[in-house]
Design the sequence.
């Protein structure tokens, strides 16, 4: 699931060396985890994995989730890593069709609800989920005395002309997820007409999330002038955590009727020579310790049942029990066509 603060990840995150006893019985193993640029984990958490297993992990950040997947597919005959994390349900069928993963049923899957387990062959393992939604700047709407939009239809009305920024679905995973939301809402017969209305109403399109949220959005990290942005349901708690001093209320709200559910996966690459080590990393990413670390590292929700959420999440994250969705197989059959049709409708 693609994030609210693009956190720099060093090319190598090397944990503490294996204990002498372990080193005496077997040499330490180093594996490489290929991922998107928004991947983040506490060093202490990754160090715990090394202490437990003797396995060191190098993290190779490779751009947006779509770009990272492209790189893994293009290099599958000359592999750049042992496992890949960051694939989401909008690109799932493409990855599975490329044959880049080998099956592995994690020992921790019993703690993960079936709704997140989208691959019956267990070539990928769900790790987190989050909702891509329209976020709004509470202060802007209050000060301009404009009502907050509550539906996708509202965004085409004159009151919101020029007030929405979205990401290009060809280059951005949240951008693609929002297009999926409109297809889920309006269907094959209506979604392109909806985007034509958005275009006529002055929607702004940028390449990626950082440019939209931290550049164009009025409540983001920059000096933007657009009060509506495609981001995440976890934007409100992130805005509180990242503020200094922290406000009592989040300055950002979420239009829950617009939310599309993203699920992110990890998989063991078929070409790895460290199969056992890569499988142990998958198990660890589903452990309580790793799952509890994710919300404040990547602003996503854990998939493991019973994982406690930080107080800032339970207080400020707005979620819906009925997000918009499209089956992964349907996305796989139509994704490229939908992107091309969106491009022809909005950008040409």
Sequence:
């Amino acid at each position: 699931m693609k994030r609210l603060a693009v956190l720099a990840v060093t090319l190598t995150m090397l944990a503490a060396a294996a204990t002498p006893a372990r080193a005496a019985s077997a040499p330490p193993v180093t594996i490489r985890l290929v991922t998107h640029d928004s991947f983040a984990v506490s060093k202490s958490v990754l160090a715990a994995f090394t202490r437990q297993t003797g396995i060191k992990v190098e993290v190779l950040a490779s751009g947006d989730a779509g770009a990272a997947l492209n790189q893994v597919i293009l290099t599958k005959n000359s592999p750049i890593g042992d496992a890949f994390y960051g694939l989401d349900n909008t690109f799932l069928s493409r990855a599975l069709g490329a044959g880049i993963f080998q099956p592995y049923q994690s020992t921790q899957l019993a703690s993960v609800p079936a709704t997140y387990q989208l691959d019956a062959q267990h070539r990928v393992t769900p790790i987190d989920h989050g909702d891509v939604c329209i976020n709004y700047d509470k202060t802007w709407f209050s000060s301009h005395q404009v009502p907050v939009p509550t539906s996708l239809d509202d965004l085409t009305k004159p009151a919101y002309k020029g007030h929405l920024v979205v990401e290009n679905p060809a280059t951005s995973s949240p951008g693609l997820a929002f297009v999926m939301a409109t297809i889920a809402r309006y269907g094959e017969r209506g979604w392109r007409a909806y985007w034509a209305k958005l275009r006529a109403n002055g929607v702004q399109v940028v390449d990626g999330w950082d440019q939209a949220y931290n550049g164009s959005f009025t409540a983001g990290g920059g000096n933007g002038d657009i009060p509506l942005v495609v981001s995440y349901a976890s934007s409100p708690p992130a805005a509180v955590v990242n503020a200094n001093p922290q406000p009592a209320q989040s300055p950002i709200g979420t239009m829950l009727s617009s939310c599309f559910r993203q699920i992110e996966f990890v998989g063991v690459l078929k070409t790895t020579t460290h199969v056992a080590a890569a499988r142990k990393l998958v198990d660890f990413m589903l452990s309580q310790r790793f799952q509890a670390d994710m919300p404040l590292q990547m602003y996503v929700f854990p998939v493991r049942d019973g994982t406690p959420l930080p107080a800032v999440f339970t207080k400020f994250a707005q979620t819906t029990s009925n997000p918009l969705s499209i089956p992964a197989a349907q996305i796989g059959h139509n994704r490229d066509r939908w992107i091309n049709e969106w491009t022809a409708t909005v950008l040409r």
Observations:
- Confidence is low (pLDDT under 50) at residues 1-24.
- DSSP finds twelve helices and nine strands in the chain.
- Residues 131-261+321-346 form a domain with the D-Maltodextrin-Binding Protein; domain 2 fold (CATH 3.40.190.10).
- The CA atoms of residues 61 and 139 lie 35 Å apart.
